[in-house]
Amino acid sequence: MLSQSVASEIRDAISAGEFMPGQQLSEVKAAERFSCSRNTLREAFTELAAQRLVERIPNRGVFIATPDADYVRDLFIARAAIEPSGVLWGEFADPAALIKLVTSARAAQENGEDQEVSNINQRFHRALVASLNSPTLNAQMNNLLARMRLSFLLVIPRYPTLHAEHIEGNIRLAQLIADGKREEAAALLHDSLLRTREKMLAVI
For this protein, what is any one GO molecular function term (predicted)? Predict the structure, then answer.
C-alpha cells in the first residue's frame, strides 16, 4: 500500500534525525515532500502513531513523538530482547566487515563527527538484528532505531559523550562475535543496553 511506503519514508527520516521530538508535521508540506495525497499521508500517520513515532493531538495536529521515561524503558526492554538473539543465533557472513564498521567510529570521533558516530552505532545494531534474516524483526528494529533517534536527540544535549562511550564496547562486541564467543558477546550487549538505559533515564 502507498500509505505504508510513505510511513516507511517518514520513519527513515526520523531515524536519520531529520525531525525533532515534538516537532509539528504540516500535512501540506509533508504531502509535498513525500509526494502523496493528504488522505494517504493521514493513513501513514495512523501507522506511525501506532508505532509511537508520532502523536495525534486533537484540534492541534500531528507531532513527532517526545520520549519520556516510560518510552525509553519500553524501548530498551524491546532492544534487550531482540538484539542479543542476533548475537547468539545470527549469521555473520563477514565478521571482519562488522569490526571495520565499529572501528571506523574512532576516526569519526577524533574528527568531531558526532553525527557519524551515532550513525555508525545505528548501523551496527541494525546489523546484529539483520543477521537473523527475519523481515519481521528487521521491520521491528527499524521502528526501534527511529524511536532511539528521537530519544537520543533529547538526551545527547545533556549527555554529549553517550555515543562515544560505546565505541570501544562495540569494537569488543564485534571481536567476540568474530571469535565465535557468542554467549559472552550476548551477555556483554545485554549489560550494555541496560547500562545505557539507566544513563538515559538519569537525564531525560
Answer: DNA binding
pLDDT in tens, 122-164: 999 999 999 999 999 999 999 999 999 999 999 999 999 999 9
Beta strands (DSSP E) in the chain are 24-25, 54-57, 61-64
- Where do the domains of the chain lie? 1-62, 67-200
The pLDDT of 76-81, averaged and rounded, is 96
CATH architecture observed for domain 1-62: Orthogonal Bundle (1.10)
| Model confidence at 201: pLDDT above 90 | yes
- Residue 145, class by beta-carbon neighbours within 10 Å (0-12 exposed, 13-18 middle, 19+ buried)? buried
Distance from C-alpha of 12 to C-alpha of 32, rounded to nearest angstrom: 17
* Model confidence pTM above 0.85: yes
β partners of residue 62: 25, 56
- Of 70, 90, 89, nearest to 147 by C-alpha is 70
Helices (H), the chain: 2-15, 27-33, 38-50, 69-89, 95-110, 114-130, 135-155, 167-178, 182-201
Helix axis angle for 95-110 and 167-178, nearest 10°, is 170
**CATH of 67-200 given 3.50.50.60, 2.40.10.340, 2.60.40.10, 1.20.120.530:** 1.20.120.530
Q: Find the helix packing angle between 135-155 and 2-15, rounded to 10°.
A: 40
As a whole number of Å, the CA-based R_g of the chain is: 18
